[in-house]
Design brief:
The complex is a heterodimer of chains A (257) and B (210). Chain A is an alpha/beta fold and 257 residues long. Chain A has 9 helices and 10 strands. In chain A, strand 1 and strand 2 form a beta hairpin. The longest helix of chain A is centred in the last third of the chain and has 18 residues. The two termini of chain A are 28 Å apart. Chain B starts with a helix and ends with a helix. The chains are: A alpha/beta (257), B mainly alpha (210). At the A-B interface, helix 2, strand 6, helix 3 and helix 5 of A face helix 6 and helix 7 of B.
């Protein structure tokens, strides 16, 4: 896809609400536009509605109000299976299939899309290298891998059928700090090369500032503000200030290159 | 005459009754698998059916076996032959462990795995056949194992309605007050139960995801 010839947003949320049967509002009147090739970070504490927003985009949940467009088309018009296969999905728990080898885990979507076996094999090797893993591990099982390796496989699996969009729900949240830093750096490299549209959920301000082209701060199901990195560091909304303070003095009232 | 002498002298009949026993248990477990696993899948998909289905299977389980044979006697076609009657009764008893274990097995699959599968665009069918059932298989086989062991024991009572099997010796021995004859039925039945328990237990461990 070519961002120059087509400036429709990749994902657009218009006045989206999500209310539980019990009457609790999880999301209230959320509107967002996510440009092609952009990494939008949804930042907020637990229960702010970040994960719900992701699940609404790939329709694991259906909004109770408003409309979501992917590629200019309302997702209620999409075939839900097609929609999900064009959106890579990475979650904190990874959710690798424990009874499949790494190769089958990564190659599952290509396989059900009827790619020829030789091409799947090639693709798996290519993806393993792309996420910084030794292609030798293709024949291993998820339980034989470390947490960091598993999450890399999770990213490779999400990229398998080359979806234009990636949804990532705290993918590095359960990983030790050293490996997390490594994965974040690799993600930036990867993103430079692949130019996917990414929606990335985190509660970590450092991670948000490092990875996001823009940062959407959420609280109690509402969007508080949406800012570039520099804008976020300069913004004076009380909640933004509270976040900066919570993460230490280096984020106070200073620009970011 | 002790039990071993008795079995040696009547080895033809021992083999015949054992085969009858295997037939009664085998056919009823097969039927219970064919009915129970789909029912288990069904209630994992529609939780509203959970209570009525498991409740009914539970109630069947509480009916004493002799009474169940009696209830089924008036049924057309089934009631015409004792072995059909016995197989139906044994199938009904085997249903509960199969339905329940299929349900528990599917519900026990790691929610993150199911969410990842759904999120990457697996259809319900693909999710069930490629992810949920394979991961639930160990628990389902455990259900088959429990059902089989119970069936081997229950099938001895089928002799009371003339369905054959190793229960013949047990009832005959009781009538004759002859322990050797009772044991000639009880020992092979116990051996069969242990064999089923052992081999299905092995299969269960093979299929359990680590």
């Amino acid at each position: 896809m070519n961002p120059v010839s087509d400036d429709r947003p990749a994902i657009e949320l218009g006045n989206v609400s999500y209310r539980l049967n019990s009457g609790n509002d999880i999301l209230v009147d959320l509107s967002l536009k996510i440009g092609r090739g952009e990494t939008l970070v949804l930042l907020g504490r637990s229960g702010s509605g970040k994960t719900t927003t992701l699940k609404l985009i790939n329709r694991l949940l259906k909004p109770t109000g408003g409309e979501i467009r992917v590629d200019g088309r309302s997702i209620s018009e999409w075939d839900v299976i097609r929609l999900r296969r064009s959106i890579g999905y990475v979650i904190q728990e990874v959710g690798l299939f424990p009874h499949f080898t790494i190769e089958r885990n990564i190659g599952l979507v290509p396989k059900i899309e009827n790619w020829p076996a030789s091409r799947i094999k090639e693709r798996v090797q290519e993806l393993l290298r792309l996420v910084g893993l030794d292609p030798q591990i293709a024949s291993r099982y998820p339980r034989e891998l470390s947490g960091g390796q598993r999450q890399r496989v999770g990213v490779a699996r999400a990229l398998a059928a080359d979806p234009p969009i990636l949804l990532m729900d705290e993918p590095f949240g359960a990983i030790d700090p050293l490996t997390r830093t490594e994965l974040q750096r690799e993600f930036l490299e990867l993103q430079k090369r692949l130019g996917k549209t990414v929606v990335f959920v985190t509660h970590d301000l450092r991670e948000a500032l490092l990875l996001g082209t823009r940062i959407a701060l959420m609280e109690a199901g509402r969007l508080i503000t949406i800012q570039t990195r520099a804008g976020f560091l300069a913004a004076s909304e009380p909640l933004v200030v509270a976040y900066r303070n919570a993460f230490g003095s280096q984020f106070e009232e200073r620009g970011h290159s | 005459m002790n039990v071993w002498q008795f079995m040696l002298q009547n080895h033809g009949e021992v083999v015949e009754l054992t085969l009858e026993h295997v037939w009664l248990v085998g056919v009823s477990i097969l039927l219970a698998v064919v009915v129970g696993i789909p029912l288990g899948i069904l209630i994992s998909r529609w939780p509203a059916l959970n209570k009525p289905v498991l409740g009914s299977a539970n109630i069947i389980q509480t009916i004493p076996s002799l009474a169940l044979f009696g209830f089924l006697l008036p049924a057309p076609w089934i009631g015409a032959r004792a072995d059909r009657l016995a197989i139906l009764a044994l199938t009904l008893y085997a249903l509960l462990p199969l339905i329940r274990n299929t349900y528990v097995g599917i519900r026990g699959v790691d929610p993150a795995v199911v969410e990842a599968g759904r999120g990457m665009g697996l259809t319900d069918r693909q999710l069930l056949l490629q992810v949920e059932l394979p991961l639930a298989m160990g628990v389902i086989v455990a259900g088959i194992r429990v059902a089989t062991v119970i069936s081997v024991g229950l099938a001895t009572i089928a002799a009371a309605i003339g369905a054959g099997g190793l229960g013949e010796y047990i009832f005959r021995g009781l009538a004759m007050v002859n322990n050797a004859v009772i044991l000639a039925g009880a020992i092979p039945a116990a051996a069969m139960a242990l064999l089923a328990d052992f081999s299905l237990g092995w299969l269960e461990r093979k299929l359990s995801p680590h």
